[in-house]
Task: inverse folding
């Protein structure tokens, strides 16, 4: 059975003391997680070890990085490698967030390289895809997202694709307070699963978690997560408040 996941993306937020406070609150939050219903907290690089330490006793909560570089090591000032993340036993890394695509010009090919090197180092990619508003208005979102998946993931073997978590995040819904309707989310998630099934077969497609991201909040998580092909969410703004993110984690049930 595929996992249901409530993933937090703190983005470039929190000072050290704010991060400590948020992690302390998450560590004592009343949440019902199981091996099939997990939470992943993607913190800025400087707080990875702190997050691991603070959340160590919290069952079924994992720490993620928000990005990685395409190279294993070397003269790439300012970058962070998967080798470093692996050495800190970080299990997940977000790859291809729309903010990375937009502000750092990460192409589908660069993202394919990042997915490859992450998998080579036993890190599970949380691979983000999703269309801009203009693409949604032109009603070409299905083919657009399909191309993102094909270009960056479809060279993977059956075994490798099973280690990937997909996050569908319509750009027009990220940080805007404008959520896709649960019907729009379900339609796209079903499309993504169909595209995965065409390439890898239905049995594999059914095992891949597909998260929705875009203004998920405590008051809409239950409805969005209840869609048959929505396996949880990737949450930005609302993940910076421990009480609200706890509601979102509990919405997995
Ligand atoms: C995100 O950062 O991936 C995201 C979905 O942000 P928000 O929840 O704030 O829209």
Result:
């Amino acid at each position: 059975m595929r996992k249901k996941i409530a993933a937090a993306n703190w983005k470039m937020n929190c000072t050290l003391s704010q991060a400590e406070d948020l992690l302390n609150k998450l560590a004592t939050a009343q949440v019902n997680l199981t091996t099939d219903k997990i939470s992943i907290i993607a913190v800025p690089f400087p707080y990875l070890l702190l997050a691991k330490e603070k959340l160590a006793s919290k069952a079924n909560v994992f720490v993620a990085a928000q990005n990685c570089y395409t190279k294993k090591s070397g003269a790439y000032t300012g970058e962070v490698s998967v080798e470093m993340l692996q050495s800190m036993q970080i299990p997940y890394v977000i790859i291809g967030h729309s903010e990375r695509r937009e502000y750092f010009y990460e192409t589908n090919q660069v993202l394919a390289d990042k997915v490859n090197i992450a998998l080579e180092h036993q890190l599970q990619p949380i691979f983000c895809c999703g269309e801009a508003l203009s693409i949604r208005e032109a009603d070409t979102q299905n083919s657009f997202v399909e191309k993102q998946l094909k270009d960056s993931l479809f060279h993977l073997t059956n075994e490798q694709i099973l280690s990937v978590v997909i996050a569908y995040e319509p750009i027009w819904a990220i940080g805007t307070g404008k959520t896709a309707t649960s019907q729009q989310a379900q339609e796209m998630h079903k499309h993504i699963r169909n595209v995965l099934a065409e390439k890898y077969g239905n049995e594999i497609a059914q095992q891949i978690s597909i998260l929705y991201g875009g203004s998920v909040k405590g008051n809409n998580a239950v409805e969005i997560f209840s869609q048959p092909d929505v396996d949880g969410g990737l949450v930005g703004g609302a993940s910076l408040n421990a009480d609200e993110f706890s509601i979102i984690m509990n919405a997995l049930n």
User: Anything to note?
Assistant: The chain has a mean pLDDT of 97. The beta strands are 4-9, 37-42, 61-65, 92-95, 124-129, 165-168, 210-213, 232-235. The pocket of phosphoenolpyruvate is lined by residues 9, 11, 169, 174-175, 213-216, 234-238 (CB under 6 Å).
